[in-house]
Each structure stands twice: as C-alpha cells, then as structure tokens.
Amino acid sequence: MKKQGIEKDLKRSPRSFREAMAYGPYLWDWANECGLKGLGYAPTSMGGHHFITLAALRVLPEVAAWLRGEARLLIWTYCGFPDMNWAQYGTFGTEIAGARMPDTRREWEISRYCRYNQLRKEGHFIGHHPKQAVEGLIGRYEDACRAADEGRARDAVRFLGAAIHYLEDSGSPPHAAEVSGPMHMLSESLRDPSQIEITHYQPAISFDPRAAVRRLEALGIEQQGPIAALLVEGSAADILPHQLVCANECARAVADLLNEFFLAYGERFDFLPQTAPTGRELLHNGDFSEPGDMPECPEGWVMYWEDRTDTGVVAERVVSAEGVEVVIADARDRVACQTTWPRVVRGLAGQVFVLTGEVLCMGGEAGIEAVCTEDATGLVAEFRAPAEGKGTWERLELVVTMPEGGEIVRPGVYARDFAGTARFRRLSLVARSE
C-alpha cells in the first residue's frame, strides 16, 4: 500500500543507523537506502531524532495537516538542526575521505536557528546533555513563539525543530547518562526505529519543559545501565527494548510540545500556498554584494556540488575591480550557487516568474536556473537558460511558469561540463502581473 502524508517519502525503514557517510544525495547511507527524496531534506547520522518526531506527528494528524509540507521538513530536516551546526559542513575531506560534505549548515541557515555561529563566534554552544539541553529547548521554543507572534510561520517551525532536538536528546540514554566515546554511539543506534510508536497517546494538559526534561533524563539514566551491560557482554541485539522505552517517552514529550504550539497558533496562521508579490524584487542579495560568514559565500546563498568527490572544482564569491561575482571553475558535473531554503520564493501554480542575470564564460555549459518544488522541497521541475559562451558578458532571461504541484521557486546559477571559468553577477527575480 502506498504511503501518504508525512510518511510518503519513506520507502522502507532502516534496520540500523551506521555512522557511515555516503556519496549519494544525502550525507548518510541509511537515508539514501530508505529512499528519501526531498531536495531540502537533511537526515542526520544517527536518525533516531527523525523517527521520534515522525512518531509524534503520526498521532497528531490535525497538526500534521496544518503544517502541510513543513511537517515533513520538521521530521527530515529541522529536528536535526543542532547536530548540523558545524563549520565543517561544505568543506572537503573533513569527515569523509575524498569527498566534500554538503553545505547543509548554510543551506538552511542553521546557525541562525540555533543562535550559535561557530565561524562568527556569535552566540554560544549549548551542550546536548539534559542539564544543558533544557536551555536549548526553552530558548528555541521561545524563539518559535516569537517568530509566530511576528507572523514568520516557517521560521517558527524551524526554531521549533531545534527545540525538539534538545528535548529528544534529553531522553537519549547515553546523553542522559553523559556517556562518551564508542559506547555512546552503540547505545544510541536504534536497531529498528519502525517500532517507535505511541498509538494510545493522550495529550498532556500543558507542557512543562523543565519537568519533561527531568522525566526523560531519569528514564534515560535508568535504561543506560542495562544497555551498557548488554553491550559489554556482546548482546547488542538485545538492547532495542530499552532504547524503545526512552524513544517512545521522547515521542510523547515531542507530541505534547507540538500540541502546545498548535493550540497557541493553529488558528492564527496557516501554511497554504501563497501568491508571490508582483512589482518588486524577490531575490535577497541578488548582486552577491553581502558576504556570508565567510567572504567566499554570499549571504543567503549556498554552493551545491553534484559530485562531492570532485577535488578540482572551484565555486566562490569573488570581489574584483569590476564588482562582486560568483565564480565557478572546472566544473565536471553540475555545480551551482543557489538561494538558501529560507530565502526561496513561493508562488501559485500558473504564476509567471522572470529570472535574469549576467554570465561570462567560454565553452562548456553555464547559465541561470530555477528549480521548482512542492511545499516539502520535492522536485517538480527544473528550468535553465545557458549562455552562448562567447567570452563576453551576456544578459540571460529565464521565464518560468510555476508548474502544477509546485509552490517554491529556487533560483541560482550553474555550470557543468566546464573546463574553464564561468562568472555570474546581477541576478534578479520578479513575478509578472498578469
């Protein structure tokens, strides 16, 4: 039977989580094996967070329906934010030999939602053990409510995802017991996350974050004892029941938090498709003039490498006497500079967008592009306008009609099959008024 709603992306559940990086669409092998498809999905190495959040939303169908695509993004991306807020994302050879890590941190502006930027030394790191995690839970939930009060609905759900992560960490046995080293990973790796379920869940009257963390911490410490004993005697296959006790209690706590948020804001805003405004610029930093937390990457933009093993490719923001540009050099497979997901443009099916930009290249294929997705970043259509490659600046125009099923336009520049250097500048995106 074909799965629907929040579970439709999951072709099959993993039998375990292995700390093994992959060369596929997602960084971790288990996510590629499970058939996830969202372009914006960012599953973490130890995927218990995702399946705990899934179990919570499974018993809150009204909340999942309200969130629409944000529910799937909450499951497969947002609840993992604190585990991906590291500067090595986007760098080569730091975690996996011979390959680059996808720049997930910039792609979702994770440092903003975690209130900590390692490169800029802004904010402060919050530990993932209960005594520190409670600060992250309370702080990010307050951020979620503040964003909701200000009408920034999707920002609110992203902050909520970070809060959920800290809540779930509080009930993880090795986190609660402050176990480090190899025993931590072995204790945390769920053997069968499909068994996380809270079918008979009843919502709490209200959610008390400190009480929830204390309850989860005590349970995690209690279960870590037998988990460690079984691992020491070589009985790793027998730890699942102890893990599930904690995972299910975490799922109940997450459901309580989500229900609390829904009761406060469910009637104040929605996540329905919306018409893009006409008559004004829709791109943030389309001239690349504003640098990000490193000058080589524009603020609000992120580099994407189709082949993360290609050591020779260059993609960066450059300031020269002629102005500010993005440069892509020696791109074998497609390399792109795209808007971050929080800065994409949303519109209705049939709405017409015009993307323009200037490109200078010689040979190969380089140009401007627009990727259209549904509300949870599943691919709907791709549009590209390549330059002629005359070696002079060319002004390109790409007219995009939002296809049926599409709600998001993600503009960018790209190059592929390219042995030289392609230069890009002065991007603009507007919606036509019909």
What does this structure look like?
The chain has 434 residues and is α+β, with helices and mostly antiparallel strands. The chain folds into two domains: 5-265, Orthogonal Bundle (P1 Nuclease), CATH 1.10.575; 301-431, Sandwich (Jelly Rolls). It is 32% helix and 21% strand. It contains twelve helices and 13 strands. The protein has helices at 29-33, 48-58, 61-67, 69-76, 104-107, 110-114, 130-149, 153-171, 173-176, 182-188, 209-232, 240-265; strands at 116-117, 122-123, 301-305, 314-320, 323-331, 335-339, 345-346, 352-360, 365-373, 379-386, 394-401, 408-416, 418-431. The strands form three sheets. Strands 3, 6, 7, 9, 10 and 12 form a six-stranded antiparallel sheet that branches. The protein has a five-stranded antiparallel sheet with strand order 4-5-13-8-11, with no helix packed on it. Strand 1 (116-117) and strand 2 (122-123) form a beta hairpin. Helix 8 packs across helix 11. The chain is globular and about 70 Å long. The two termini are 42 Å apart. The model has no long low-confidence stretch (mean pLDDT 93).
